[in-house]
Amino acid sequence: MRTVPTTPPRDVRAAVTSWLPRGGTLPERSWQARHRGLTTIAWLHVPVLLGLALVRPRGGTPELAVGLVLVALLALGGSTPRSSRTLRASAVTLSLLVSTALLIHLFHGMIELHFHFFVVIALVAMYHAWAPYLLGIGFVLAQHAVMGLVMPMAVYNHEAAMAHPVAFAGVHGLFVLAESLACLTYWKATEQALDQEREQRLRAEEVSGALAVANREISDLLAMISHDLRAPLTVINGCAEVALDSWPELDDSSRRTFMGKVQTAGLSLEEMLEETLTLSAIDADGLLPEPTSARLDRLVHDVLGALGHPLEDLELQLDPVVAFADRQQVRHVLTNLVTNAAKYGAPPYAISTRALERHVELVVEDAGPGVPVDFAPRLFDRYARSDEARRGDQRGTGLGLYLVQELSRANDGTTRYEQRAGGGSRFVVSLPMGGPCLTGVVDRHHDEDGSTPSTTTGPSVRWRRTPLREVPAAGSGSTVQLRALPGLG
């Protein structure tokens, strides 16, 4: 036996729901204004009904006296500000409906006074709320059906209606339903207009907020350029002036000193320009990395070799790990971290790479003063520079660590800052693991640029762990500690 569903299909219910207004969408100010007006109308019915009760033949009946008290009490309930919107609107609605029933009763069911119900339904629809609206429609239908059976002469004033109260209650109900559909249509249209207005206002606020942020960032950038670019430009101009005036009289050592200062200032300008251009690329089109398998330990050596001023007292603990990321962007990340450590940290420095379960980590540490506690939450913000950094001699855009975070995110990685137990800073960049990457074991099939050749023949090389040994760093008196040395396995 086939079971007949007792509920309508979801698509039918969804269609009906989409056609009906949601309700409760009026802004507070609009609702309060409409409620004040409807409450005033409800209170005005009290003296009008009282005056009619004094002059009409049925004015002295007990049911009219009870009705008048009920109308006043309901109007008072709607005027109580501590109640919810639904309760206040429902109280005012009932006050108006009872007033209508009393008017019809006073005039012996005069048909023309039934129009008052239509006016009340239209007024109640102004609340844009389902509770008072359904309460109004239900009251009208119940009043015609129940009172038409119990006291038909109080509802109708002609013999046909009093003889067939249910049928005429249906006729009145059809007209009330037609008016209700008209009110619902207007209600839905008004609700859609309010939604569109709200969406436009939100979009305008978002655009305004974005413009405010952009203007603020432009102001910050201009302030940075006017302040931090002045120092290297002063050095370059000063050295150029000395060179033009006294170059023949300078010995080789003085000349190298002057050119070194010019080179340092030029590198500082280049760094600021590179960071600003990278930021512009992020804002314009976002970052589009081209990930490949990249050996982090080799990238570390490449970056350190490209630095104009090698770090002193540097310890390297580099596992031959492979990251799946954009090589140039990872190089940029590492360069910014090393430069940041050199600017604001202090020796000894340490750089390490390691492989975890599903990702690899690049760690840069220094033994400097660390990051102030109150500045740590803003460490990776755009243009963020601590008060100590602003007061110091080091110049910068405040974009270095922000770009580190954004470049890491673009490569599905993360960046975090940790305070070292003995003082200093530790920055940890986590990136997705690429290729066969096990701590202490690397397949030789990864060629020098980190990619995997098509052929897979030939012997493999294993890296075996050996005790740390000290090797003099090239071109400096610092010591580099190597963790893994190649050897046949």
UniProtKB/TrEMBL annotation:
Biological processes per GO annotation: osmosensory signaling via phosphorelay pathway
Keywords from the named record: ATP-binding, Kinase, Membrane, Nucleotide-binding, Phosphoprotein, Transferase, Transmembrane, Transmembrane helix, Two-component regulatory system
Tagged with keyword Transport: no
Reaction catalysed by this enzyme: ATP + protein L-histidine = ADP + protein N-phospho-L-histidine
Record-linked InterPro entries: BphY/WalK/GraS-like, HATPase_C_sf, HATPase_dom, His_kinase_dom, HisK_dim/P_dom, HisK_dim/P_sf, Sig_transdc_His_kin-like_C
Subcellular localization: Cell membrane
Listed Gene3D superfamilies: 1.10.287.130, Histidine kinase-like ATPase, C-terminal domain
Compositionally skewed regions (Low complexity) per UniProt: 451-460
Domain Histidine kinase: 224-435
Chain segments annotated as transmembrane: 37-55, 61-79, 91-111, 117-142, 163-187
GO molecular-function terms, A-Z: ATP binding; phosphorelay response regulator activity; phosphorelay sensor kinase activity; protein kinase activator activity
Major localization class: membrane
GO cellular component terms attached to this protein's record: plasma membrane
Residue stretches in coiled coil: none
Keyword presence, Glycoprotein: no
Segments of this protein annotated with the region Disordered: 440-463
EC number(s) from the headed UniProt entry: 2.7.13.3
Protein's UniProt name: Sensor-like histidine kinase SenX3
Organism: Nocardioides scoriae
